[in-house]
Structure formats: structure tokens, C-alpha cells
Amino acid sequence: MKKVTVYITLKQGVLDPQGKAIQTSLHSLGYEEVQEARVGKFIELQIDDKEDLDARINAMCDQLLANPVIEDFRFDVEEAVQS
Amino acid sequence: MKKVTVYITLKQGVLDPQGKAIQTSLHSLGYEEVQEARVGKFIELQIDDKEDLDARINAMCDQLLANPVIEDFRFDVEEAVQS
After folding, report:
1. What GO biological process terms are annotated to this protein in UniProt (chains A, B) (predicted)?
2. Which of A33, A46, A56 sits opposite B31 (nearest CB)?
3. Which of A36, A45, A64 sits opposite B25 (nearest CB)?
4. Where are the domains of chain B?
5. How far apart are CA B35 and CA B33, in angstroms?
6. I need a labelling partner for A19 at 20 to 30 A (CA). Which of A11, A36, A39, A44 fits?
7. What digits encode the pLDDT tens for the residues A24-76?
8. Are B9 and B70 in contact (CB under 8 A)?
9. Do the Cβ atoms of A43 and B56 come within 8 Å?
10. pLDDT tens series, chain B, 83 aa
């Protein structure tokens, strides 16, 4: 079993209104030191061991998890810790 | 200037319908090896150097970035790379 974490961010240059709203709100709360905020998401997957893991994760991202037009993704694979 | 990345996840035990939907969709695309999917978000902040950085980031999370009732957060601080 592997634990895969996929990080999805907006591509450089794509406007991030949610991040802009966070920055504005932080300023109005008194955190003037915040110069920029950008929001991304991550997805933690528990995946059974299988061949071609990296290729399959790339395919999952292209088909479903990320929008390749406006988003970039990267992922880490580690051994899952059984709890 | 520091680059701070805040990772926000649902607390253990809180239902994650978005993650469940992702898992179901991945199954129907043929990725039967995915046993669990959970979704979180991360926020990248560019912050001017200031005293008590960690305490101020904790306060930002409690006041705005995370919902402490259902979400956990953690953050990393690194030196910002000027581009």
C-alpha cells in the first residue's frame, strides 16, 4: 500500500481570486506583512501496490484530478503507514 | 521575506464527501487500486520578515484560514526565493 499526495496549483500567471480574497482579508485583520497568497489543493490517496504506479497517477491527474489547461500538479509517493 | 505554506486538512473522523466522490470517480475510470481519497488545501503566503512569525501565522489560521472546529492545520516556513 502506498500513500500518494497529489499537489495541484494554478499555473503561474493564472489569476487566483480566492488567494487575492485571503490576502485582502488578512490585511484587514492587521496582517499587513502578507504580500501574496495563492491557494492550491492536495489529494491524499491510499493506493494498492500495482505496476506502473507513477504512470497511473499521472493518468489519474490528467483525466480527473487536475485541469491541465490552468493547473499544474506534482505528487509524492511514500509507503503507507498502517494504523 | 519568508514563504509560508499552510496545509489544511479535515480532522480525522470528519466525513469528506469530495474525497469520496473522487474515489468513486477513479474507480469508474478503472483505477480500482485507490482505497481512499481525502482532499485538503494549502495556501502559499509570501510574508515580510516580522517578529513572532510563528505566532502570527497560528493566529491567521485560527482567525481566517482554517476552521478549527473541523479542520487541522500545519505550516512550513522557508526563505522566499526572489525571482
Report:
1. 'de novo' IMP biosynthetic process
2. A56
3. A64
4. 2-79
5. 6
6. A44
7. 999 999 999 999 999 999 999 999 999 999 999 999 999 999 999 999 999 99
8. no
9. no
10. 999 999 999 999 999 999 999 999 999 999 999 999 999 999 999 999 999 999 999 999 999 999 999 999 999 999 988 66
* Homologous superfamily of the B2-79 domain (CATH): Phosphoribosylformylglycinamidine synthase subunit PurS (3.30.1280.10)
* Nine-digit cell string for B24: 468513486
CB atoms within 10 A of CB A34: 21
| Rounded Cα distance, B7 and B19, in Å | 16
- Measure A39 CA to nearest chain B CA, in Å: 5
| Distance from the B64 Cα atom to the nearest Cα atom in chain A, whole angstroms | 8
Distance from CA of B12 to the nearest CA of A (A): 12
Would you state the torsion angle of the CA atoms of residues A78, B67, A66, B43, taken in this order, to the nearest 10 degrees?
A: -80
